[in-house]
């Protein structure tokens, strides 16, 4: 099952594709120095395959690569960072202004 993750800037979300079709997404709001993750969702037919973790890991890596601080408002992103402490340094503790 080929998996691809892309940053769909027009929709302000990272998308994960399985066999060429959107299987999930992580919505964000882009600020000058921050990226605010607001919602992560995997379509029901793709749940339980580890896609959300792949998606969020990729999104956090991309944030690091572009020098953005991360504001995790999405509960899934919060839990992911708790389970993967290598991303804690990205978290911006100030208000998401």
Structural class: alpha+beta
CATH superfamily: Gcn5-related N-acetyltransferase (GNAT)
Order of helices and strands: EEEEHEH
CATH class: Alpha Beta
* β-strand amount: 35-45%
Stretches where pLDDT is under 50 for at least 5 consecutive residues are: none
Shape: globular
Here the CATH topology equals: Aminopeptidase
CATH architecture verdict: 3-Layer(aba) Sandwich
With strands numbered from the N-terminus, the spatial order across the biggest sheet is: 1-2-3-4-5
Helix content: 25-40%
Number of strands: 5
Number of domains: 1
What's the gyration radius in Å?
13 Å
Largest sheet: 5 strands, mixed
> How many alpha or pi helices?
2
User: How far apart, in Å, are the first and last alpha carbons?
Assistant: 39 Å
Mean pLDDT: 95
């Amino acid at each position: 099952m080929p998996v691809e993750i892309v940053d769909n800037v027009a929709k302000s979300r990272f998308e994960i594709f399985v066999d060429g079709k959107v299987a999930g997404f992580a919505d964000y709001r882009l600020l000058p120095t921050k990226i605010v993750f607001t919602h992560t969702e995997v379509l029901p037919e793709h749940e339980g395959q580890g896609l959300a973790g792949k998606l969020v890991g990729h999104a956090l890596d991309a944030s690091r690569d572009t020098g953005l601080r991360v504001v995790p408002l999405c509960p899934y992103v919060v839990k992911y960072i708790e389970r993967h402490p290598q991303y804690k340094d990205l978290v911006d503790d100030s208000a998401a202004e």
